[in-house]
Amino acid sequence: MVSLTVTRAWPRLHLPGIALAAAAVAMALVVSRFLPALSPAIIAVTAGATFHNLGWLHERLRPGLQFVAKRVLRVAIVLLGLQIALPQVLTLGAPTLLIVAAATGVTFAVTPLLGRWLRVAPGTALLIAAGVSICGASAIAAMHESADSDDDDVASALGVITVYGTAAIVALPLLAGWLGLTGRQLGVWAGAAVHEVAQVAAVGAASGAAVLGVAITAKLARVVLLAPMVAITTLRAQAGAACRTPAGASVRTETEAALRARTGARRPPIMPLFVAGFLAMVVVRSLGVLPETLTSAVPPVTSVLLAAALFGLGTNIDLRKLAKGGRAVLLGGISTALITGISLAGVALLV
Length: 351
Description:
Mean pLDDT: 85
Radius of gyration: 21 Å
Keywords: Cell membrane, Membrane, Transmembrane, Transmembrane helix
Family: Belongs to the UPF0324 family.
Shape: globular
Organism: Nonomuraea endophytica
Oligomer: single chain
Structural class: mainly alpha
Distance between the termini: 65 Å
Low-confidence stretches: 248-265
InterPro entries: UPF0324_pro
Transmembrane segments: 12-31, 37-56, 126-144, 156-181, 270-291, 297-317, 329-350
């Protein structure tokens, strides 16, 4: 009876927020047509932040917005895996893959250390590291499941990613022209350095089809690293928790183990289920068993779902808090400069 009541209450609680997110996505798609440099995802997250900071959100919208920000985003991340074919990524060649791995790995490892030096909250620093080094908002959401972070950390990281990623759309083509980079060099640089897939696409689209293809493929090579990075973070967090266990805690550990055995509770997984789903979709796409009609239909659907989810996430961005959290903005700038510099040096030497 309780389950039936909850089922009947679900539409009343969630549909208003879902409807608002759907309207925001429709608006974002229309605006993006007239302003191709701005992806629907960027427009949607900006719209969500605008709604929140202008006080236009009624509390009854919150359940639906939280649903799209969490559940819909997880579905979008799983579908993102269907855009990645490992044989296609390998066509980039060893030098480009080395640039991607070095820029991503160093940025992901160094950013939390810089965050500690700048006295940025550890959760925020880790999410900024994931967003800058891997794939923007998708990485932030995936890492949030494995990091000791809260909604304020997510909002800060999203704000930072949006600001610097949008700036890169304009800055990279201008710098590439000034530096005399070839189209392939610009494509590799954009794919190895820019935060969001959509932002990389915007850089590539403004520079020609050849640049776009290289840039997207290089970016997808970074996205592949999402699952192992999440797994590594989870294992480190579990190992750190074990190391911090005080002496004499073995009795508590045994008690907790007995409690888990009685209740059926288990240790948190190495990676969230939706990240495992993402990895499974990469494998499926790489095996080439899906018809092209399906794989070509996936990117637009994923883009719509990501825009809806980012609108929901954007409604948690408080610009006043972001302005006060100047250290997080500074960390995001340093981290962005780090991945941009490493990848540019690699491009100059190897491409």
